Sequence to fold (82 residues):
Amino acid sequence: MLRAEGVSPNWWANGPGDVYAPHSHHYHKVLFCAAGSITFRVEPSGPDLELHPGDRLDVAPGTSHSAIVGADGVTCVEAPRV
Fold:
């Protein structure tokens, strides 16, 4: 699906409970959860978005966000849209 949108996907995975501190990107981030779960928070106060297999998240450039990986770990595929 990402290739059909003209972007180059990259796969990554994390173990249970891994945390991503608040950060932002200079590009539009497109992400799909492939396995497990991960909860993203749009900073500073939410909302929390829990992703499960098949769920998509789009994060606009410059949007601060953090994340915590669910109890079973997570595998995601994402791509920058510049």
About this structure: The chain has a mean pLDDT of 92.
